[in-house]
Amino acid sequence: MLSGTRQSVIRDLPLPLLWAITLLTMVISTKGWAHEPVFSMGPETIWQGGVGIETEFEFADEGGEELSVLHYEILYGLTKDLSLTLEVPQILDRQAEGETGDGLGDVEVRAKYQFFKKDMLNAQHKITGIFGIKVPTGDDEADPPLGTGTTEFPFGLSYGYESRTWYHFLTTLYRLRTESGNSDPGDRLFINGAVGYRPVQGEYTDPDVVFFLEMNAEFEFKDELRGTRLPNTGGNTIWLGPTTLVSPNPQWMFKTGIQFPIYENLNGHQEHSEFRASFGIEHHF
Amino acid sequence: MINRRYYALLAFVMLTTVSMVHGHVQQVTLRVDGLACPFCAFGLEKKIKKLPGYDSLHFLINEGKVIVGWRDDQPLDLKEIDKAVDKAGFTLRGVTGTFIGTISRGNKGELYLDLIEPVEQRLHLDMPKDKRRIKTKKTDQIQSTPQPLRERLEGLLTQGNLVEITGKVEGHSKNKVLLNLSINSLAIVSPPEEFGCKVISRVENLVCSRCVTRVVRTFMPLEDVLHIQADHLEDEIQIWTQSEKPNLMRLRDRIELLGFKVEQIRVQKEKEDQKK
User: Fold this and answer.
1) Mutate to test the interface with A, among B30, B32, B33, B37 (most CBs of A within 10 A)
2) Which residue, B12, B35, B117, B135, is most buried by CB atoms nearer than 10 A?
3) Close Cβ partners of A137 (under 8 Å, ≥ 6 residues apart)
């Protein structure tokens, strides 16, 4: 149960700020690992006993509102088929309604279980189940809020084909968002597809570059406040854009990408997205 | 063409002798499926580097191969290699390398290479077919092939020699499929030129190739033992040791612990050796 002060804050939350929370959860989407797409997850699990760390900077321009987030991720391979990830977002700058804020965002823990794998010469097919929990560690009472104030349960399936030349991924992820006081944010559904190509098939220690084209379809149901659906929330957006993964050696990877909304059907009156961009560094050992 | 190849192999077998030198590094080539990118293959590098016999590593990622330098003072444990590749998230399809052991026969007459170490590993020897069908444009011709290789291996069954086979092992131990070793070359491991002394023991109950394998597997890993030969037709075990004065009582006990009765055990004199 929420405290009385917190409930009243949610009740009095202006609609633009509700949209700001939506933007926050959109940007703090789950991240890809290894040669997965940059703007979504794939089926990759790390080897048994392997540890991966990642820092990723994301920027989103939402009309007059801007958000800069630094994600810290740590990944551990419990078995070759089961890996755990802890993701901690640090909001560097959040601008909305003329106010700015920064601080810790909502922390997420998730597990990936790879239940199908077929290895071939220089290629793999994989299917992985994804389960997680996002806890409201970000301050949702701040102005602007740094967290959503709700607990979320992301779950989904991811299929991937990887070879020395071509990659393709298809991931479906559903984010079940629980009620928080009188507020019930709408659930979100992500359908992500990506195609990748490696132009030069170098040897093990050579620098490695893979180009991707990623398309992300995002469907959000309307938020509810005290049982009433809010008209200016929810909607559908399809993002498209190029991303690039560069490994100077087998232990490091730099990943960057930009996406633009090629289709937007938002309910009521909402700010339209301009673009979102990401730059990350991964290291595993 | 095929005849020539097998005669050449026979000639190679007869002419080649190989000496085991401890600390020498041999190469094994792993054929690994699923190697799609260097970043993902790093896990395999980590797992292989943890194996006890590891010496060096070279990826041929575009060919799906990993060349591993392996110290031959450590057993080439195929199960451990298989496990390491599996834990890294890939599938081991085959291992090409040199394997040392004794030849034995299975219940159905099939031949095996029983590796000295690790003792539980037994590789099924993949024999060339008796007859090979060669397709031509007009008619199918059946060409019979001689079996010098099989005859040679059958001969080694009784002599109890240590043999060194270079070839490719395929088959997955997890699925209980026999590990098939296809032979590229075969050589008898000859006794070392330099040794402390040679012990000869006459034993009873040394009746089959499996008995020979048990003796070789027991004695070969011992630090003082450089080489061993066990002949079940002659009922004789010969042991080449590093020390000039080996403990004969201890050697006798070890043989008897295996269930063989020792009739005689003695150090062979130098003159006797030269005479032989």
Assistant:
1) B37
2) B35
3) A104, A105, A106, A107, A147
